[in-house]
Amino acid sequence: AQSVTQLDSHVSVSEGTPVLLRCNYSSSYSPSLFWYVQHPNKGLQLLLKYTSAATLVKGINGFEAEFKKSETSFHLTKPSAHMSDAAEYFCVVSDQDRDDKIIFGKGTRLHILP
Amino acid sequence: NAGVTQTPKFRVLKTGQSMTLLCAQDMNHEYMYWYRQDPGMGLRLIHYSVGEGTTAKGEVPDGYNVSRLKKQNFLLGLESAAPSQTSVYFCASGHTYEQYFGPGTRLTVT
User: Fold this and answer.
1) B16: Cα separation from own chain's centroid
2) How close B81 gets to chain A, by Cα (Å)?
3) Alpha-carbon dihedral of residues B97, B67, B7, B30, nearest 10 degrees?
4) How crowded is residue A62: how many other Cβ atoms within 10 Å of its Cβ?
5) Region of B71 on the Ramachandran plot (φ > 0 left; ψ -120 to 50 alpha; else beta)
């Protein structure tokens, strides 16, 4: 069975400092992994995705994530936080062969301190 | 391109009332999805469709019905609304490896 765990429900960082949002997953199949961002009162936007190509994935707005199979992790990072990064972030795992196996993490709210 | 649009944006229902949420996409995607988002729960898949005329159950289908009569539209129906269905509903189109989300419908059932 698939599952995804976002290890922090809230993360606060100062503007200009690095961001780390942690995600662990479990999957019995060949997983695809994603990070989505949701700004207040908005829909979700895809930040980046891993689909069995390069393990270091670069996304929009300077975010990147590294797929580590041995650690079953897919943490999201950014070298320098910006005020506009304040949002909720969702880690998502899906099974490439199953249309219905799309599992969202419970989300991490990122706060940026001035 | 409008992408994915949802109608209405807000709705308040009384318990037992019915309503239909409309999702439309103009990206010619075969796959469409309905999710609900509740605080601290992330998004949970209600129903999905892999093409015109097809629908399937997701993780939390009870109390909802869907129809996909046209490729570009995916309707979510609540036959008899319950307070437990108070939520924000998101439609998405695309595929499991990339989905495009609508702006959401905030539904309150009193």
Assistant:
1) 19
2) 23
3) 30
4) 14
5) alpha
pLDDT tens figures, B51-67: 999 999 998 999 999 99
Are A47 and A19 spatial neighbours (Cβ–Cβ below 8 Å)? Answer: no
Task: Fill in the amino acid letter for A23.
Answer: C
Distance CA B13, CA B9 (A): 13
B102/A107 touch (CB, cutoff 8 Å), yes or no: no
Q: Please report residues of A whose CB lies closer than 8 A to that of B33.
A: 102
Q: Do B99 and A46 touch (CB under 8 A)?
A: yes
Rounded mean pLDDT of B70-76? 97
Cα gap A95→A65, rounded to integer Å: 19
Q: How far is CA A30 from the centre of its chain?
A: 18
User: What whole-number distance in Å separates Cα of residue A33 and Cα of residue B44?
Assistant: 16
How close is the nearest chain A Cα to the Cα of B51, in Å? 12
Give the burial class of A85: count Cβ atoms within 10 A of its Cβ; 0-12 exposed, 13-18 middle, 19 or more buried: buried
Predicted confidence (pLDDT) per residue in A20-77, tens digit: 999 999 876 778 899 999 998 888 999 999 987 788 999 999 999 999 989 999 999 9
How far does A15 lie from chain B, in Å, by closest CA?
25
B96:A46 CB<8 A: no
Coil, helix or strand at residue B85? helix
A105 close to B (CB below 8 A): yes
